[in-house]
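Need a sequence for this fold. Nothing fancy.
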């Protein structure tokens, strides 16, 4: 099945944990809060460090996650009279609360001493799937009054799918005590934006601003990794993934530089150390959101002052200014970089059972002054608590599960269009991951 066909058939391949990124890929990573860059357990290690694939052996892995993010926003009344939504009123909740996310991985040793390997991994990523029903907003106008524009939609939200095909090669060196790896990544992204039609006067291309249905693009990236045994049961590892470029022509009037919404680069380093009956993992992941077009471009606080709107607000026939929607540099979600610390412990007991626990923390990336547009993309989660297990079934088969709970996190900030009003974004999440290897 092609990437496009799989993404179309599985529109729920989206989630928001560490901003746009999953906290981990596969039940084993998820059981230790997405850590393990120096602790390869299955072929999905390629998603965070391709160097680890050569240590996995011949293995096939299929995983499925049920993921439930609960997103909502609240606008608090003020003495100021609001002339533009979002209006003060009851809490508005996103209707998209249940997703199923598949992933799979394969690894094949090559060479006389299994000192080389190739692998393939397929997994989803994303983070901005929301669905706010206009009927739940004050006066039924929608979060951003899209229904007030002829041909515009009152319901607001985003359907954003990212799918990655990871083809990797890894090789041992230093007498097998270390390995390097490289992965070529083919990305397919699919995007729909709804409810932004009222921003037409601030756009360079209002015909390609909102409610244009699904658009898609492909991008390419590279992930490099290295891993080494430094003695005393300790391994160190590091990997880096490049930025992946995506451009959506049907939303050229919304995102910077004619529709760019790129996938940010990321760096992950960590260690794995033997401790008692198991292994401790400690990772630091840094996501360079501020470097990615669309996601990290200067936030929407520059919209009122950095863009002269078109008629009917002024006599100008066309919007103009550096901060107009769709311009270069334009404006984006304004996300800041995110650094996440991940800790985990994996140990084995009798009867072929393996157990995992983990926790992670990273300060959420949305500045308080940019909460208005981030109603659409409230990626505010900071803490993940995880646990999981594997049970060997014989003949090389194994069943794994992982549970994740992300406590509620809220971010408050000023309403961009009505000074004095406050917008609060809140989210909490739960997930159940099941995997089967053979």
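Here you go.
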């Amino acid at each position: 099945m092609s990437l496009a066909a799989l993404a179309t058939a599985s529109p729920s391949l989206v989630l928001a944990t560490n901003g746009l990124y999953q906290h981990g890929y596969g039940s084993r990573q998820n059981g230790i809060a997405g850590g393990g860059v120096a602790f390869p357990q299955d072929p999905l290690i390629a998603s965070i460090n391709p160097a680890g694939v050569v240590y996995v052996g011949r293995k096939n892995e299929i995983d499925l996650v049920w993921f439930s993010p609960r997103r909502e926003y609240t606008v608090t009344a003020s003495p100021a009279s609001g002339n533009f939504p979002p209006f003060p009123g009851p809490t508005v909740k996103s209707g998209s609360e249940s997703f199923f996310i598949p992933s799979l991985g394969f690894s094949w040793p090559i060479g006389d001493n299994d000192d080389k390997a190739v692998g393939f991994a397929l997994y989803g990523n994303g983070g901005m799937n929301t669905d706010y029903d206009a009927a739940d907003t004050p006066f039924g106008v929608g979060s951003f009054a899209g229904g007030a524009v002829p041909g515009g939609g009152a319901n607001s939200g985003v359907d954003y799918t990212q799918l990655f095909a990871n083809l990797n090669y890894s090789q041992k060196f230093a007498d097998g005590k270390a390995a390097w790896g490289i992965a070529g990544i083919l990305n397919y992204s699919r995007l729909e934006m709804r409810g932004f039609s009222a921003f037409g006067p601030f756009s360079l291309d209002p015909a390609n601003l909102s409610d244009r249905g699904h658009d898609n693009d492909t991008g390419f990236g590279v992930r490099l990794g290295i891993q080494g045994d430094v003695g005393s049961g300790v391994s160190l590892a590091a990997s880096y993934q490049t930025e992946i470029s995506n451009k959506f022509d049907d939303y050229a009037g919304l995102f910077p530089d004619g529709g760019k919404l790129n996938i940010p680069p990321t760096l992950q380093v960590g260690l794995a150390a033997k401790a008692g009956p198991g292994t401790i993992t400690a990772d630091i992941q840094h996501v360079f959101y501020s470097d990615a077009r669309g996601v990290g471009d200067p936030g929407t606080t520059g919209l009122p002052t950095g863009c002269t709107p078109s008629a009917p607000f002024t006599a100008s026939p066309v919007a103009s200014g550096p901060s107009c929607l769709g311009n270069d540099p334009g404006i984006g979600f304004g996300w800041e970089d995110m650094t996440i610390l991940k800790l985990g412990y994996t140990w084995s007991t009798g009867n072929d059972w393996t157990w995992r626990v983990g926790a992670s923390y990273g300060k959420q990336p949305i500045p308080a002054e940019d909460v208005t547009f981030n109603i659409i993309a409230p990626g505010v989660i900071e803490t993940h608590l995880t646990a999981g297990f594997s049970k060997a079934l014989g003949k090389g088969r194994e069943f794994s599960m992982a549970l994740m709970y992300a406590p509620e996190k809220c971010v408050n900030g000023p309403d961009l269009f009505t000074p004095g009003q406050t917008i609060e974004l809140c989210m909490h999440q739960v997930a159940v991951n099941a995997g089967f290897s053979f």
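For context: The longest strand covers residues 59-76.
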